């Protein structure tokens, strides 16, 4: 099966996650992490444990660090 580039990966509370945006699948509350290996917690709004994950590299393959996201390399 070929994944669409816009398809989101699902992650669960308690997982160690890297830089990216995490959106609660129930209420839509979103969090952004800029550092690797952070613990993803239950949603503070609805206590849901599942999130859609949009890693930094999801947008551009040349964005690999938080600094790259703030100052993207020129194409």
Q: Please, how many helices?
A: 1
Strand order of the main beta sheet, please?
Answer: 1-6-3-4
How would you name the oligomeric state of the polypeptide chains in this document? single chain
Arithmetic mean of pLDDT: 78
| Proportion in β-strands | 25-35%
Number of strands: 6
**Helix-residue proportion:** under 10%
Order of helices and strands: EEEEEEH
Gross morphology? elongated
Structural class by SSE content: mainly beta
Keywords:
single chain; 75 residues; mainly beta; four-stranded antiparallel β-sheet; two-stranded antiparallel ribbon; 1 helix; 31% strand
Task: Kindly describe this structure.
It is a single chain. The chain is mainly beta and about 80 residues long. The chain is built from one helix and six strands. A four-stranded antiparallel beta sheet has the order 1-6-3-4, with no helix packed on it.
List the helices and strands and how they pair.
Layout: E1 9-12, E2 16-17, E3 20-24, E4 30-33, E5 38-39, E6 50-55, H1 66-70
Antiparallel strand pairs: 1-6, 2-5, 3-4, 3-6
Short structural summary:
The chain has 75 residues and is mainly β. The protein is built from 1 helix and 6 strands, in the order ββββββα.
């Amino acid at each position: 099966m070929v994944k669409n580039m816009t398809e989101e990966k699902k992650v669960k509370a308690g997982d160690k996650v890297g830089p990216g945006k995490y959106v609660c699948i129930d209420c839509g509350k979103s969090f952004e992490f800029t550092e690797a290996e952070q613990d993803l917690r239950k949603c503070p709004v609805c206590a849901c444990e599942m999130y859609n994950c949009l890693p930094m590299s999801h947008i551009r393959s040349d964005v690999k660090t938080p600094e790259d996201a703030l100052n993207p390399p020129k194409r």
